[in-house]
Write a structure and sequence with these properties.
It is built from 3 helices and no strands. By secondary structure, it is an all-alpha fold. The protein has a single domain, classed as Up-down Bundle (F1FO ATP Synthase), CATH 1.20.20.10. α1 packs antiparallel against α2.
């Protein structure tokens, strides 16, 4: 097994992991920020709808965070059990 090829795969994987986690976190933060601002705006306009709106806001916050957590799990999979390295080992 050529060690320079292994090093190249590990380096590229590390960059990809950083991009996956960084862009996922950035997207989740922007999404929750926009959603929270729209919630506050709609709560100020119609305060009687706050109980219904807060339930929907928390549901959407969970879905936005779930997308980030799935990306994090995929990144950790590539960090600890890289299938690209097993492809060149055999």
């Amino acid at each position: 097994m050529d060690m320079s090829l292994v090093a190249a795969i590990q380096g590229s994987t590390a960059l990809a992991i950083g991009i996956i986690i960084g862009l996922g976190a950035l997207g989740a933060c922007i999404g929750i920020g926009i959603m929270g601002s729209k919630f506050l705006e709609s709560a100020a306009r119609q305060p009687e709808l706050v109980p219904m709106l807060s339930g929907r806001m928390f549901l959407l916050a969970g879905l936005i965070d779930a997308a980030f957590i799935i990306g994090l799990a995929i990144a950790l999979f590539f960090a600890f059990a890289n299938p690209l390295l097993s492809a060149i080992a055999g």
